[in-house]
Amino acid sequence: QVQLVESGGGLVQAGASLRLSCAASGRTFRRYAMGWFRQAPGKEREFVAAVTWSGGSKYYADSVKGRFTISRDNAKNAVNLQMNSLKPEDTAVYYCAARYDSGTSYFVSGYDYWGQGTQVTVSS
Length: 124
What we know:
Strand content: over 45%
Largest sheet: 7 strands, mixed
Distance between the termini: 40 Å
Helix content: under 10%
């Protein structure tokens, strides 16, 4: 089992950058593929980015490709999401998710554990 705690959200202007972090508990963090999802008001939770347990493969939603970068540090039990060139449409609650002993997934149902979320608001 793993517990996830996100941090780093905030209110920024369009074009700015933010770095989200997700701290994971437990000694088996490297057994988990990790993902970031987001949910805007009135919308379904959607995939943003994912990384395999080794960090060797990364995947992104088309809407963030080239602007966001996912990374992980297994020694620190952490996964990060660097968000550059933010747009108002990036405004959402961002969630960190963990998928045990498997590859990554683009689907909410593919993940076993979730954090509580961190709010990102981008003003125009």
